[in-house]
Structure formats: structure tokens, C-alpha cells
Amino acid sequence: MTRAWRWLGWVYLALAFGFILLPVGVLVTFSFQDGRLPVPPFRGPSLRWYAEVLADRRLMAGLGNSLMVAGVSATVALGLGFLAAVGLARHQLPGAAVLRLVLIAPLTVSYLIIALGLLSLYNRAGVGLSLWTAGVGHVVINLPLCFAILYAAMGPHLRAAERAARDLGAGEAAVLWHVTAPMLAPALLAAWFLAFTFSWDEFIIAFLLTRFDVTLPVEIWALLRSGISPRANAIGSLVFLVSVVVVVAVQLIALRKARA
Amino acid sequence: MSPGAGTRQGWGFVAPALLWTAAFFAAPFALMVWLSLSRLEGRAVVPGPGLDNYVRFFTEPSLLRGLVVSLEITAVVTVVSVALAYPLAAIIAFRVPKRWQRAVLVLAILPFWTSYVVRSYAWLLVLGQGGVVNAALMGLGITDAPLQLSATRLATVTGFVHFFVMLLTLTIYANLVQLSPNYARAAADLGAGRVATFVHVILPLTLPGVVTGAFLTFVLCMGDYITPQILGGNTELTLPQLIMMQLGRRGDFPMASAMAVILMAVVSLAYLACARWLRVERT
Amino acid sequence: MSAAVTLRGVSMRYGGFLALDNVSLALEAGEFAVLLGPSGCGKSTLLAILGGFAEPSAGTVEIGGRDMAGVPPRHRPTTTMFQDYALFPHMTLVDNVAFGLRMRGMGRRARRARAEELLALVGLEGAGRRHPDALSGGQRQRVALARALAVEPQVLLLDEPLGALDLKLRRQMQDELKAIQRRVGTTFVHVTHDQEEAMAIADRIVVMNAGRIEDEGPAREVYLRPRSLFAAAFMGELNQIPGRGTGAALDTPLGRLPLAAAGPVVLCLRPEAIRAGPVEDAPEAPPAIDLGPARLLEATFFGTHHRAHFAPLAAPDLRLVVHLPQGTAPEPGATARLWARAPVLLPRPAPEATP
């Protein structure tokens, strides 16, 4: 009886993996399609779609914009979140629980609603749409995340080290620079990367809050409007590959650091 | 540092984040609520307060249908995703050798690293008329003509389930791995077989985590525009799609805002139900 | 209900590491046995093997005369009390205790009643409706005991159950465990690293080290007549004087002592077995052994006795720990004559194996 269950377990695992990896497999395989449609039968392989994508100025501009918006919004969110976490973790502020709730609240609201709200605000205020207006929206969704991660990482361990530093004569800025930030380094990096990833991949806020210069997901969306095309496969696979490489690299660096 | 100076410094540190949240989250939200109570006449917004938009939503069948469709799809997606993800998480946590668990888990959530838009597009490829599924079915001789799989509710549900199975596998796995192995040992020691151990010990202990994951699924699924837009076809529209329509076609901010508020209300109701259930579970 | 436990030639190998090396042990039914030893000595591994959570690489395990090879924990006449108690947090205390009975198919009313009985036995009468997270560590431990006893096992296995408790509570629980074991009559196998705990509760102590049994027997025997140097040193503070036996006498750094021994041995003396008297006193009658004059280095008051360090004049580099009676007024620097009783001679181990 147990052996049958065991066998069933592996079968289920295989089927589940098949289901999960199917779309990605199809995406990457047909990005090398030597033909106009990324559907069977497979002809190729050919790199022409990758060449087209890399030569497409709009797509590449979108890529650059995505990197910029993600980088800047992640950094801003991290900065604001770090200060807020330090402020709340170190001092007993009145209504701290409420403050924490307010800072985390945006996590619970659908991105569409956040985008809609900001769009209404910009409309009223007569502010034109741009990468900046979208970036603001990305900070709104990433700030709670950074705050939550950093606040959770500020344990008694850190508090004790800060106290020791002050005892030895360090001023507040010195404590933050020499003790707090270095000790929180893993959490800071993790929060930044997560915020970067969320912003990089984010569609609806970027879609509603940009106009002329757009991010990559929005460009890809425009590409999809005209139906399926191996170009979309190519750019999608490219994004996927780069993400995987970055994640693997980060893991390897972390592993090497842990071993040293 | 004196208590007063400390508190002042604390406020100083927290203020920037608070101001940002107030200006770019709270204020827009309040504006949205105000707009929902206003009306669109021609191109101008006429301030309320008035419940015209809400009344219109609940009386116009095409609009109300959007909410019903969203709820139906979300319910199915949540149930199916949990049902598929739990066994997967359990197999990874208990059957896969410890050394390989991390690698297997990363493999199981690999598609996360494609853009969400691209991921839904990939399902369009798979389910399309000329896609791999149809090609396989015809190749195996099961069907003669390609089936209409994309641009259907089935496609939308499949696209959602694909995403949420990955998400839930991750969260349920984290939950399972945290359990002390002594619980299962104690249950076995006292005479429980595999099934009894799962039903009486493992399942109840992981249920709060599962409910939390299901709630997350509910919220994300209800509010998603991308997957239904790519995979759903135009025959039935979900609430987010209707909201986008109000924005795009007519620029009807008041109506769109009202529908957004309704979406938020539904999500909040689900939150209250979950929170209440979780609290009840504790006692 | 209780059963005898017999282990024959049990070995446990994890990859290249030998956790248990050819262990043989026979425990009587109804006995309170304690597996005593330092971390890594194999005592927890042995307990896991008895409970069925690990299969030995070699050897046989018999409980109540039945061979337990391949028998899973479910079907063994044992229950285990885990170190972290593993109480089911989502169930009430009554449901926790009744769990095993439920698995055996007992009806709800009957098993609830029995659970309440057991909770009363461990001193938690009436607390049945509560949940484990509302209890203190000591209380949780009692519930774990009640749950393990509910299925009337023939052997109860306890994996360092008192480790998480503070000293006072631990002493109290030791007495309670002993009392409950006497009442219920089940064979108890208790794992600990604390020799005082072992002496407080055990009918039989099994001293283990590096996967082997060093000594076993009642506390009195293991303490006063240890069979290995490790067991002697582990059971309590010990003075070890190296020597070489000539047959009729023993040559030591303190001089020639009238003890029959042969070959390299260690003379073991407990601190309370050494008496200090004025240098001029007449020699005590045998079997007291004259250790010669020694200078008192320092003494600390320990309530019931003074713990004193002496340096023998014949061997000034040697240190002897002696317990002086409460009433003495030790003066550092003073010289006294030391007499020893109840000497234990144990073979000197090869140099690498010195503990």
C-alpha cells in the first residue's frame, strides 16, 4: 500500500512540473521559430526574432526605462522604508501600531485601485503622465514591502549592538552608518531586490500612469495587441533568461559569502 | 538621549514614509471615494454626494455581471489552486530528500521569473487554435478540428491556476517545513496511520496557513486585469476589465471609482471573514 | 502492564559514524532505567531504536520477549515522551491525552473519561478544556506524560523530558515521575545527561559513552564501585591518582600504599571518602589508607561541607579535592594528614583514551 502511494507521489510531482513548466517551455522553444507564427510545427532554430527584438528601438527603450524606474523606485522605497523602520523600532512612538498599519496598508489594495487613485489625483492636479508618475506609484507599492522586511529584521540583537556603539561614544549618524546599516545588509539587499523585481515586472500601474515613455511590460502589451508573434516570445524569453541568471548569480554570491 | 528628544527623532525618521503614503496613497484613495459619489456629465465631473454610480452598477445587468463573473472565476481558481498546490507542497516537503528540496522548489516556481504579462501570453500560445495542446490532440487523433480553448473562461481559469499553484506551493511548503517532525512521530507513536496522522494532526496545523494563502489568492485574482484580458476573450468581462473599460472608452472616472470601491468592499468582506475564522481557530 | 527489554549486539551506523557499538542490555519489567551519558554518547539513538523511529544497523531488540525487527512505532508496545513534548496545539488537553485511545477505536465518552483520569493522575485535574499554549513548561510535560500513559504502554520512553525546566521544578518532577512509575508499574527508560537526576530516580543506571555501555547497575553500585574510569568520573567528582601495582602493594606519587594491585592502575577516591586530621595523630586503623601529609591550598564553604584543595607534600604537583565537615575551620597553608576509605582501583586506560 505504501509503495503504491510513493509511486503515485512521484507521478503527481512529474505531472505538476509538466503543467507548471509547459508555458515557459513553449515560450522559449518557439522564440527560436524560423517562421511567422510561434506555434507548432517547430521550424528552426533561428535567432532572427532575437535580432529583431534587440534592434527594436521601442522595446529597447522600454527595457532601459524599466531598469531605470525599477532601480530608482526600489531605492526610494528602501530609503523611506529603512528610516521608518528605524524610527519605529528604536523609539516608543504613540500609536505605533496604527502607524505600522498605515504604512503596510497599500499591500492590501489591488494595484489597479492604486493606479486609478493616482491617475485621478494627477488628473485633478493637472500633472502630465510620465515615467516619474509611474515611478511614484511603484514606490507606493514597494514602500510597505521594504518597511515590513526591515522592521522584521530589527531584532533585539541589533538594538543591543546599537546601544553598545552609543556607549562607546558614537553619534546617531555614526551608529546608523557603522552599525545599523551593515548589520541589516542582508535584509536591505533582499528588500531592494524584491522591490526591484516587483517594479520591473509591474504592468497595470505603469500602463495607466505613463504616456509616451513606457516600461517594458507596457511595450510587450502593445506588441501583444497585434496578435501572437515570435517577437513576443523572444523578448519574453530574454527577460526570463536575464532574471534567472541574476537570481542564480545572487544565490551563488550568497553561498560563497556564507562559506568564506 | 532624553525621552522627548528620542520621540522627536523617531517622528523625524517616520515622517517621510508617512507623508509619502498620505500623499500618494491615502489622498488618492480619498479622492477616488469622493469621485465615486460624483457624476460624469459630458466631459465634466459634477460633485455629489450621490449614489448614482452605485445604483447604476447594481441595476445594469452588464455591469453587475462583471462582479458575478469575477466572483465565480475567483472561487473556482482558489479551490482548484489550493487542491493542486497542497499535495505538491507536501510531496516536496516530505518525500523529496532534504538536499534537493530547495532546487526542486526553485524549479516549481521558475515561471515566476517570466513577466506576468508574458506568462499569460504563453498560455495563449499553448491553448490557441494552432497551439501545442490542439496540435497534440489532433496529432494523437483525439480530435479532427482544433478546439476553441483560448478566449474562454477555461483559459482564464487555467492561466490563473498556473500562477496561484506556484504561489500557494511556496507558502504551504514554508508552512509544512516549519512543523516539528515530532508531531507526526507522536501521532504515529500513539497508533495513528498515515491517513489519520494527516487528517488529525498535519492538516489542522497547516490550515491557518492555507486559509491565509487562499485569501491572498482571492485578493490577487479578483483584482487582476491582465490574465482575463489576454485569455478570456470578449464574451464575458470581469470587474477589473469593466473598470478599465469605463476609464478607457468614456473617461468615466466617477463610475470607474465606484466600481473600484465595490471591488475593495468585496475584498474587505473576505478579509473580515478570514480574520474572524482565524481568530476562532485559535480558541 | 510492563515488559522486559532486551538488546543484543545492537549497533547503529550513520554513514561513517558509529553511534552505537555492539550494545547489549537487559532491563527488567517494571524497572525505572536511566540511560546516562554526555551529548553524543548514543543514548538518544538507543531510545529512538527502542521506540521504532530508527532501525539498528545490526543486533536484535526484544520487548516483552517479542522481536521488534521491522515493527513501526504504531505497532510497538512503547510510547515516547519527546523532548519538546509535541503536544497537538490545536486540540484541548483532553483530546490530546485521548488521542491514542481514539486511534484504538475507543468511544468518545469512554476515552474522555479515561483522559480525565490520567490528567488527575498527573495533577492537572479539571484543566481538560484548556489548550497547550495556555500551560507552563512543567504543566505541558505532565500532559505529555498523561498522553503517553493513556494507551497503557508496556515500556515508556522519556527523551530528556526535564531538560527545559528550572532546578526546583526539575527536582519536583523527578519525585513525581518516580511516584507515578511506581503506581503505574510500566517499565520506564529515561534519557538524561544529569547524573544527579539519574541517581534521584533510577532503579538501574546505564552509563554510556561514545556508543558503548561503560557501566550499569543501581545508583549505589555505580557510584561506589564503578567498573570503568569514565563511569567513575561521570558519576561525580573524583580524585584520580596514577599508580603501578606490584602485586601486594601499589606504587604512587604519594608513596607505596598497602593495596593489592597489579600493573598500571588508577586509584580513585571520592572527595567525601578522604578525611583530614592533624599531622601528629596516630595512624588510623586499616582499612583506612594513609595518604601522608598535605598542605591545604584553599577551601570554599558549600553549605553541607567545605570543599578543600590539598597538595600532598610527597607530590606537590598533585591536587586532591577533599570534603571537610561543616564544623571545621580550614586554614589555607596549614598542613594535615589525609586518610582515605573505600578506594576503587581501575585499570589505567591507554594514553589516547584518557577522558
Brief overview:
The complex is a heterotrimer of chains A (260), B (283) and C (355). Helix content of chain A is 79%, strand content 0%.
- The amount of beta strand of chain A, in percent, is under 5%
Total domain modules of chain B? 1
Write the CATH homologous superfamily of chain B. Answer: MetI-like
Tell me the structural class of chain A: mainly alpha
Number of strands of chain B: 2
CATH superfamily of the domain at 67-213 in chain A: MetI-like
CATH class bucket of the domain at 67-213 in chain A? Mainly Alpha
- How does the major sheet of chain B shape up? 2 strands, antiparallel
Tell me the helix content of chain B: over 70%
* Pattern of helices and strands of chain B: HEEHHHHHHHHHHH
Mean pLDDT of chain B equals 89
Which oligomeric form is depicted?
Answer: heterotrimer
CATH level 1 class label of chain B? Mainly Alpha
* Continuous helix count of chain A: 12
Name the average pLDDT of chain A: 88
Radius of gyration of chain A: 23 Å
Annotated CATH architecture of the domain at 67-213 in chain A: Orthogonal Bundle
* Sequence of secondary-structure elements of chain A: HHHHHHHHHHHH
Number of strands of chain A: 0
Question: What's the layout of helices and strands?
Answer:
The complex is a heterotrimer of chains A (260), B (283) and C (355).
Chain A: H1 2-30, H2 48-55, H3 57-90, H4 96-104, H5 111-125, H6 131-153, H7 156-167, H8 172-183, H9 185-201, H10 204-209, H11 216-225, H12 230-259
Chain B: H1 3-36, E1 39-41, E2 44-46, H2 52-59, H3 61-94, H4 98-108, H5 116-127, H6 132-139, H7 153-178, H8 181-189, H9 194-222, H10 226-231, H11 239-250, H12 253-282
Antiparallel strand pairs in B: 1-2
Chain C: E1 5-14, E2 17-27, E3 32-36, H1 43-51, E4 58-63, E5 66-67, E6 78-81, H2 93-103, H3 108-121, H4 137-150, E7 155-159, H5 167-184, E8 187-192, H6 195-201, E9 204-209, E10 212-217, H7 219-224, H8 229-235, E11 239-246, E12 250-252, E13 255-257, E14 262-269, E15 274-277, E16 289-301, E17 305-312, E18 320-325, E19 335-340, E20 344-347
Parallel strand pairs in C: 3-8, 3-9, 6-7, 7-8
Antiparallel strand pairs in C: 1-2, 1-4, 4-5, 9-10, 11-12, 11-14, 12-13, 14-20, 15-19, 16-17, 16-19, 17-18
